[in-house]
Specification:
There is one protein chain. The chain is mainly alpha-helical and 69 residues long. The chain has three helices and two strands, in the order H-E-E-H-H. The protein has helices at 7-18, 36-45, 48-68; strands at 25-27, 33-35. The protein has a two-stranded antiparallel sheet. A hairpin with a 5-residue loop joins strand 1 (25-27) and strand 2. Helix 1 (7-18) packs antiparallel against helix 2 (36-45) and helix 2 (36-45) packs across helix 3. It is globular. The termini are far apart.
Length: 69
């Protein structure tokens, strides 16, 4: 799963997560279910869950560029 991400990438993901209502939950594979705020905390700490969340967001962004084209 993901490498160590730059602060810029982490900040992009954190901004995207902030735009989501706080009552939304995310299932992160074998790691379990997380609230938006829990997931943001994991991204900030750079945990394996945070890296999985970053991977998920980056994959989504990459897919959107192919859909929009």
């Amino acid at each position: 799963m993901g490498a160590d991400y730059s602060d810029e990438v982490k900040n992009i993901v954190l901004k995207r997560l902030q735009a989501i209502p706080p009552n939304v939950t995310f299932s992160i594979g074998e790691h379990g279910t997380f609230s938006r705020d829990q997931l943001m905390h994991e991204v900030e700490k750079g945990t394996s869950v945070g890296k999985a969340a970053i991977d998920m967001q980056l994959n989504f962004i990459r897919k959107m560029t192919t859909i929009a084209a």
